[in-house]
Amino acid sequence: MKPLDFMIIGAQKCATTTLFELLRQHPDIRMPLEKEVPFFTEPDADAARWCEFTDEQFGDDTGKLWGKATPQYMCDPEAASRIASLMPDVKLIAILRDPAQRTWSHYQMDRRRNTDQRDFTEVLDCLLDEATLQRSRRLPVPAHDNGYEPEYEFYVAWSEYGRILQHYWEHFSAEQLLVIYTEDLQSAPRETLDRVLRFIGLPEG
After folding, report:
1. pLDDT digits 0-9 by tens, 128-172
2. 192, containing H or E segment
3. DSSP structure string for 128-162
4. Is the pTM of this model over 0.90?
5. CA angle 54-56-61, nearest 5°?
6. Pairing of strands 91-96, 6-10
């Protein structure tokens, strides 16, 4: 079984797509053609299933670094332990954005999908209720199997980066987790990408 060499775990609405597309062009990196191809959000994420998954997504191209990007891995409270049990040495990349901006962007996405047309202030008043927030932190990640499902219950909970990353720090060493920021990718793309390449073990540039 060939494990992943690195994984972009999120967060959603923080330029994971941009980072995925940039890394996918590297000649020494192999990634699935699509970004959000989940695996560790499933309860049966074992070695046998992984071999089936890689046959479909990576083929026999084992001479390159394998990576994937799935923002849902920062939303699913079980993902960190599932990843650690199967790939304890994988390197993880979290790209983060100002949490208020991420929350607003998530809300705007649901507006475009027509799954939430409420006023933003009304939404926040509901979500910042402590009981509601506690519930939102435990909800499963929407699968969107039959069209877009509303994600309004996650606007705030998925912006709690410290709480979310704690799941990963419980299973991985600090050296295995790189945190970068959307603003750095925008303002200094070359330097930020070089930092990512160094982290996953490739030459800069």
Report:
1. 989 999 999 988 888 787 888 889 999 999 999 999 999 999 999
2. helix 189-200
3. TSHHHHHHHHHSPPP--BTBPPP-GGGTTGGG-HH
4. yes
5. 60
6. parallel
